[in-house]
Design a protein that fits this description.
The chain has 700 residues and is mainly β. The chain starts with 35 loop residues before the first strand and ends in a 6-residue tail after the last strand. It is globular.
Length: 700
């Protein structure tokens, strides 16, 4: 599809947010006219009248999907493409190309219960495996730049994984699951009243033998909560922990090699691995004040560690990184007749470390490339960061049907970098590499600071009980990541980088009645000061891209048992500059950004009987260029999945799923680098069977 919407400053009509559970709802259950989301304004608000693109998957849909990877959840939403790597790895696109590189994760803000999962400047492209999306109460995604309530990294969008509160959990529920390729998962959910309030727990442990050679993993996730009230207000304490021990499979090589089953299952990097852990403790305090004011205080302690072998680099160095941080978010809201005002302050202190080392000399490349990658330590540094942000947002009811939202956020970030090695691009003992020096370059100790301003304006008009129009304009930003500033290459000694900025316009229409839900969105965005690596291997500021498209959603319950849901995206993501970038590729203004399908679609047919529920899902990923020069292309793919759930009267439930039902050969990710096509192949047909039990269940 080569036609996309060219948006102007005028209102565009927009479908959006094919969100949650119509594919499971029988026609006896009307479309939820009071669907509520919480992420956009940090409080419950009816979806129909929100001035923004937000999608939601609720607890029932999450439970019945029983995803083995977060891409299975999120790729059901318009504007979203999560490409699965090996094991639990992934790359993200939210109203964007699939982004890669050191700062690619900085384009997306990943939240857990409304709080950033990591400190600003220390993101990771695989960050989503550090949250328990498999047992969440909801997953909400905001597409496009975030509101004034959220700052850095809310460039292309926000993902918020919401854990269940104790009151949302059963007294006890268990699940045991087996699947293809030695897959096993055990799940538990429980809650109980205590002397002060109520406690809850969800957790699961997974063993996956891996469908590719030497590619299995062990994973565990836990989310515990304690809710209680005091005379001063209400508290919600949470503890979230994850652990991943993974054998990693790398790219397969060769044009269309994913079509060969033997090559698809192969693994040229059996030595590769990833070990990651995370721990987050949060406290949320809410108190009603006089005159209708409300105080909201959130405190987060976060820690994460990850070791992984960089099998994709010559020399295969080991990276060891970690982050520890304390964050405090305070806000106060006031209701004044037709006006609601929110003001707040966010603060954060963080410490991040990174060490990269290589056991032996580099082999496998040209002599000059081998010589530029010495054995020993390449990087060993510590970065301390400080963040302070202040914001204000007003929601003004201009009439009973029209609402205006306006917000502004200022944010300042400071880094203090301490190099624990010798400065420059020598080996760790100061010996120069032949030629132009060693590849890895270490700046001298330094400090850097960044200040950013982000406004947002939104307008919604509820035309009738079933129809609403909305429009919005916003500006998002992200400061450079620590790795972009201090993990340099070749002769670069200082990375003089600016913050990335994006400006977006969007508008839409939503319709909901008892049987039908329709949504349409159109958007246009322009991103400036993109941080990239140029042809010399230097980190610079200078890229520009444009992004425009249409997103749609449909939910229809035509009869007593059947339902139909569809969502999709028609989009164009283009370079707006001409120049050379890393690996000698030439970018030409007007060309598509690589790994940016112009079409994404999902179609779901649902059945809901008395004891049997089911869904047939069809996913379509359009073709896309696999390199920035637009000379190599992946043709796209279509994949079907089947899910069935059976429950008679009683506490037991049986679930059966088949992914890639027709055993299609496809690539989860296609790429072109170093003169060769390479792929993360998609998994062939796989089956999973789960038996679940819940205390107190007496009917389906």
């Amino acid at each position: 599809m080569r036609h996309v919407l060219t948006c102007t400053l005028g209102l565009f009509l927009c479908w959006a947010d094919a969100t949650s559970t119509l594919a499971w709802a029988s026609s006896s259950e009307s479309v939820d006219l009071e669907a509520v989301t919480v992420t956009a304004l940090r409080r419950p608000q009816a979806l129909l009248t929100q001035a923004g693109s937000i999608a939601r998957i609720d607890a029932r849909e999450i439970g019945e999907l029983a995803a083995t990877h977060h891409s299975e959840l999120m790729n059901r939403m318009p504007g979203v493409l999560i490409q699965r790597g090996s094991g639990q790895e992934s790359l993200t696109a939210l109203r964007s190309p699939v982004l890669t590189g050191a700062g690619s994760c900085g384009a997306f803000l990943f939240l857990e219960d409304g709080l950033p999962m990591r400190p600003v400047g220390f993101c990771n492209v695989n960050e989503l495996f550090e949250v328990n999306s498999e047992q969440a109460a909801a997953v909400e995604i905001i597409r496009g730049p975030g509101s004034a309530l959220y700052g850095s990294n809310a460039v292309h969008g926000i993902v918020n994984v919401i854990n269940p509160a104790p009151a949302e959990l059963p007294p006890l529920a268990l699940g045991l699951e087996v699947g293809s390729d030695d897959y096993f998962r055990a799940r538990l959910a429980a809650s109980a009243p205590v002397a002060l309030g109520e406690v809850g727990l969800v957790m699961h442990g997974t063993h996956d033998g891996g469908w590719r050679n030497d590619s299995g993993f062990e994973e565990g996730k836990l989310a515990a909560s304690w809710a209680f009230d005091t005379t001063g207000g209400s508290w919600l304490l949470r503890l979230n922990a994850t652990r991943l021990d993974q054998e990693t499979a790398g790219f397969i090589q060769g044009q269309d090699s994913y079509r060969d089953p033997a090559i698809a299952r192969s693994n040229a990097n059996p030595e590769a691995y990833r070990q990651a852990s995370s721990l987050r403790a949060t406290a949320t305090y809410q108190r009603e004040l006089r005159d209708g004011d409300q105080l909201d205080l959130r405190i987060a302690l976060r820690s994460s560690r990850m070791d992984f072998l960089q099998h994709f680099l010559l020399g295969k160095p080991l990276e060891e990184n970690g982050q520890d941080s304390l964050a405090v978010f305070a806000s106060r809201s006031r209701e004044l007749d037709r006006l609601r005002l929110v003001v707040g302050v966010d603060t954060e202190l963080a410490n991040g470390t990174l060490r990269q080392s290589q056991d032996g000399p580099t082999t496998g490349g040209p002599p000059a490339a081998n010589a530029a990658r010495p054995a020993g330590r390449h990087y060993d540094y510590v970065v301390d960061s400080r963040l302070l942000a202040a914001y204000a947002q007003a929601e003004w009811a201009l009439s009973d049907a029209v609402n205006l939202t306006a917000g502004l956020r200022w944010e300042g970030l400071a880094y203090d970098y301490d190099n624990r090695m010798i400065d420059g691009n020598t080996d760790e003992f100061g010996t120069p590499c032949p030629g132009s020096g060693c590849l890895y370059s270490r700046p001298a100790d330094r400090s850097d600071s960044f200040s950013n301003l982000g406004p947002r304006l939104g307008l919604s008009w509820q035309v009738s009980e079933t129809t609403a129009l909305w429009a919005g304009a916003s500006r998002g930003y992200r400061p450079p990541e620590a790795t972009e500033l201090y993990r340099l290459q070749r002769g670069q000694q200082v990375a003089d980088l600016n913050s990335e900025f994006i400006e977006g316009l969007e508008a839409g229409i939503r319709y909901r009645d008892e049987r039908l839900r329709l949504e349409l969105t159109a958007y246009q965005m322009r991103k400036d000061d993109i941080i990239l690596r140029d042809a010399q291997g230097f980190n610079i500021t200078g890229g520009r891209t444009s992004h425009e498209g249409i997103e749609y959603g449909l939910g229809w319950s035509p009869g007593e048992r059947w339902s139909l849901a569809a969502s999709g995206t028609l989009a164009r993501h283009r370079y707006e500059f001409t120049g050379g970038i890393e690996q000698g590729e030439q970018v030409t203004r007007g060309d598509d950004v690589d790994t940016a399908p112009r079409q994404l679609h999902t179609l779901r047919l649902g059945y809901a009987g008395k004891t049997l529920r089911g869904e047939l899902e069809w996913l379509v990923v359009g073709d896309y260029w696999t390199n920035a020069a637009n000379t190599n292309r992946y043709p796209g793919h279509e994949v079907a999945n089947l899910r069935l759930h059976w429950q008679q009267v009683g506490p037991f439930r049986l679930s059966f799923r088949v992914t890639n039902l027709f055993d299609r050969a496809y690539a989860d990710r296609a790429d072109f680098a170093f003169g060769n096509a390479r792929y993360f192949p998609g998994r062939g047909r796989a089956a999973f069977l789960e038996i679940g039990w819940q205390a107190g269940e007496s009917s389906p």
